[in-house]
Amino acid sequence: MSELTAKDVQAPIETASPEVQRIIQQVLEIEKDRLDRNDRGLVNADILQIVKAAVQ
Fold first, then answer.
1. Residue ranges per domain, the chain?
2. Rounded to whole angstroms, what are the CA distances from 20 to 3, 14, 16?
3. Which of 20, 17, 50, 16 is nearest to 33 (CA)?
4. Burial letters 17-45, b for 16+ CB under 10 A, else e
5. HSE on the CB side for 46, CA within 13 Å?
6. To which H or E segment does residue 18 belong?
């Protein structure tokens, strides 16, 4: 199995719809904030809220 490159990882994000890209960006921001605060709590509720807002 070949090794993945950054381009391979970014490709699905770059080709996603604007709505999906927005969801991904918001989830990444939540995760970054958690890492900055060294917070180990669950983010499922936050992610669910982001997805629900995008669907509406």
1. 17-55
2. 26, 10, 6
3. 50
4. eeeeeebeebeeeeeeeeeeeeeeeeeee
5. 12
6. helix 18-37
Tokens of 20: 């999906």
Each residue of 12-51: pLDDT tens digit?
889 999 999 999 999 999 988 888 888 777 778 888 999 9
- Give me 31's structure tokens: 């995760």
What's the distance, CA 32 to chain centroid?
10
Q: What is the pTM of this model?
A: 0.71
- Enter the tokens of residue 32: 């970054």
